[in-house]
Design goal:
four-stranded antiparallel β-sheet, 98 residues, 21% strand, globular, alpha+beta
Amino acid sequence: MTEVNAPKVLTANDLDTGAVLFYGIDGDWVGSINEAAVVQTPAHESALMERAQSTLNRVIDTYFVALRTPIEHGCVPTEMRERHRLKGPLNGLANNPR
């Protein structure tokens, strides 16, 4: 029997801008959590991380974020910290590069 956990998405920050990114279904990093690949088993988590390995030179601080269920109307992280990350930097630095 396959162990099923809470749905999760793989997230990271863009190395150049610091923007919050999610590993997408198409195999690239995307800015919208709703375009992220959602996994629910440890085996799928491992497989997704393996697929993402070739793109890790673009991002930093890669980890999985648990989602609230149901997710039919969009992905919502369970942790407040992650919900705040979705809103972007509070100081506006990502929109005003040096």
